[in-house]
Amino acid sequence: MPTRTNRRLRTALGTVATLATAGALMAAMPASAAHDRGHGHGHGQDSGRYQDVQLLSFNDFHGNLEPPAGSSGQVTEKQADGTTKQVDAGGVEYLATSLRTARKNHPYSVTAAAGDLIGASPLLSGLFHDEPTVEAMNKLDLDVTSVGNHEFDEGATELARMQNGGCHPTDGCYEAGKKFQGADYPYLAANVTDEKTGKPILKPYYVWKHKGVKVGFIGVTLEGTPNIVSASGVKGLKFHDEIETVNKYAKILDKQGVKSIVALIHEGGLPASSAYNYDCDSAGAGSGVSGPIVDIAKGITPKVDALVTGHTHNAYVCTIPDPAGNPRMVTSASSYGKLYTDTTLTYDRRTKDIVRTAVKTAKSVRSANHVVSRTQDKAADMTALIGKWNKLAAPVANQAVGYISGDIAGRGAGTPEEPLGDLIADAQLAHAKSLDPKASLALMNPGGVRSDLVYKASGAEGDGVVTYGEAFTVQPFSNTVNLVDLTGAQVVQALQQQVSGSNEASPKILQPSAGLTYTLDMTKTGAARVVTDSIRLNGAAIDPAATYRVAMNSFLAGGGDGFAALGAGKNPLVGADDLKAFNDYLTANSSAANPIAPPKADRITIVK
């Protein structure tokens, strides 16, 4: 979280709560402690041998307390006639109402999440180091979550503060006389260990208990977290194989007599349809999903009864057979609180295990995704929470930084090249040229574009006005804009790494600044997808032997997202943070009379 914004907030408010230094918060919690804070939501009596347990789950909330704007706040819904429509969804006021409504008449109900609840958050949460989101999750009665890669954006010590509480060591407490209490729910990090001790940095598992029913939860993030998080965020940590870790702790739980087990895995899949309510099993069990989660699901021990997943921001409810050939539910609920998954686990009191049958009967695992509709009533306590933090954030959030003439799609573009990605690359190149006139191109990672810029006013600022808060939502990471020397050959290699190596299965297309053009032939495989003789910079072919001054954010300059070629740059020069570069560009290049038009996103020619 950028401390620059907090300094600006303190200046704007004229005062700030008393600073307090957070204590040592990285003490590892013992793996053997089965945490018993389980509770049943609602009322009811035990019902004989079999007891239905309601599992409510979501993932990748990313601090979206307010309803996400534009396409980022919509889900695709399949209609009875086969057509689809977009439905507005999300916002913690509505998520709270949805979960509380779903729990009614379910005396055995547990709520879990699969990571990335915080990190890459809009300003309302990110400005305050995501304390508002943890506070909201406490009010939601979240029982347990796994960590995700974004839980490590500010490092392990800050993650420990999210769990244990205490005021921020630099920015202190945000409300006079109030200390941040931390998460009421456990963060699980079974496959993340301290390099020195070899022990998990947080609890590896949690056992939910209610009236004789026990369900164990094991939480892991993707093994490749170090490749997609800044090096400072994962310093001193080791990330282990998801399958091996889950299997290890499933054995431990089994020996403790916990036979019903759910894995919370911050890794996901790619559904065959963008509609949240499509039938993933229509052509056979698990036929409607691909990607990393499929192999993970197939490798995890049959001791685990269900997998709640995330990371890819997709929606699916699929049955993927376990290694013994038994059906097993694998779910994901999109992102930003737009959906929640309601899964019924039928618990057998005699065997202490979940009943899993070859067909979906009354005694089996049943699951479905549900829209967090904005037509329902808002949860009053969440409205109050948002209002409290908005009051603190307002002096910063409402500042106008630029003007646009229409929606500029970023995260919601759904195309390899995003109009907003191009605009950010142009902004970084402009900043780089102010530092070094020799700067010739800029490249922006797609994962760093977190939202859209929406023309319609979100508050009182007026249509077409871009506020600091809206820009922050687009670029919340506080990366710096870096300049490095790359040979033409390295530039070509970087473009090839978009679609090869670790990025071959799920390409990460860099957003190019104006002047860089090329063709991407997706009918080919690997590095051959980049048509090298089509690459042009300001109309001229890239010279493999020439040196180019290339701008990028500090994440890419460190080789992040599998771009080793970018990490090999020479003669580095560090500029301002990327949000400042973006805001400065918007301010310098737009006005109410002359707003910025959405870029055409025509710098990359895609052949399918």
From TrEMBL:
Residues 403-566 form the 5'-Nucleotidase C-terminal domain. It comes from the Bacteria. GO terms for cellular component: outer membrane-bounded periplasmic space. One of its GO terms (molecular function) is 5'-nucleotidase activity. Residues 1-33 form the signal peptide. PANTHER family: 5'-NUCLEOTIDASE, 5'-NUCLEOTIDASE-RELATED. Belongs to the 5'-nucleotidase family. This is Bifunctional metallophosphatase/5'-nucleotidase. It comes from Streptomyces tabacisoli.
